[in-house]
Design a protein that fits this description.
The protein is of the alpha+beta class. It is 22% helix and 36% strand.
């Protein structure tokens, strides 16, 4: 199985998710935490593939191997999201003189560019966007270090790109496929912290 990085968040800015400062808005209850989850997923709910820098070069010596990009990039080419061309680059390994090697260079097509999302200072190639289905429950953090922090468990809806249904894509990106197929049933978790302005996400 490939160990692709799936990223559902970009950036590190905590969002104030509830208006007003009344104490009732600081309680850990279904209404407040549902509002917090909706606000969080509205801006941080992209399901991304960890491909932040383009074009992506795959050394020809890796062709036919199980390296992540050697497996995944031809699949994205097959569904029309990237184009491939031959190129040569300098390969500088530690303690050795740079040498020129042949690579296959993959660049986003016009169709592929539709799925590159830029958030704040970094972008990523994304397959879907998650929205809240329902809050299943919440509990205090197990480490007990912060009484104002809770872990919310939730299920989600998903707006997935059409190409996520391709069998080759599903095989090359198994974690992505698992999340897409898990809409409505898979339970995810998100940390929140109570602040003066309401509940804000932690760990983003």
């Amino acid at each position: 199985m490939n160990n692709e990085k799936i990223s559902t968040v970009l950036g590190a800015v905590a969002l104030a998710v509830l208006a007003g400062c009344g104490p009732q808005q600081h309680e850990a209850n279904l209404q407040n935490l549902t509002a917090a989850m909706n606000a969080y997923l509205a801006t941080k709910g992209d399901l991304c593939l960890g491909k932040t820098q383009w074009p992506i070069d795959v050394p020809q010596r890796e062709a036919g191997t199980r390296s992540r990009n050697a497996v995944q990039m031809p699949v994205l080419e097959h569904v029309g999201l990237v184009s491939a061309s031959a190129a040569k680059v300098q390969d500088a390994r530690e303690g050795e003189q740079p040498t020129e090697i042949a690579v296959t260079r993959y660049a986003l097509t016009e169709e592929g560019k539709k799925y590159f999302r830029t958030r704040e200072t970094q972008g990523d190639f994304c397959a879907a966007h998650l929205a809240l289905d329902k809050v299943v429950g919440w509990e205090a953090r197990k480490d007990g270090k912060d009484a104002s922090a809770v872990v919310v468990t939730y299920t989600y809806k998903i707006d997935a790109a059409p190409w996520t249904g391709d069998a080759g894509v599903q095989k090359a990106f198994p974690m992505m496929d698992r999340v897409v197929r898990g809409a409505g049933t898979m339970q995810l978790k998100q940390n929140f912290k109570r602040t003066q302005t309401g509940w804000v996400p932690e760990g983003v």
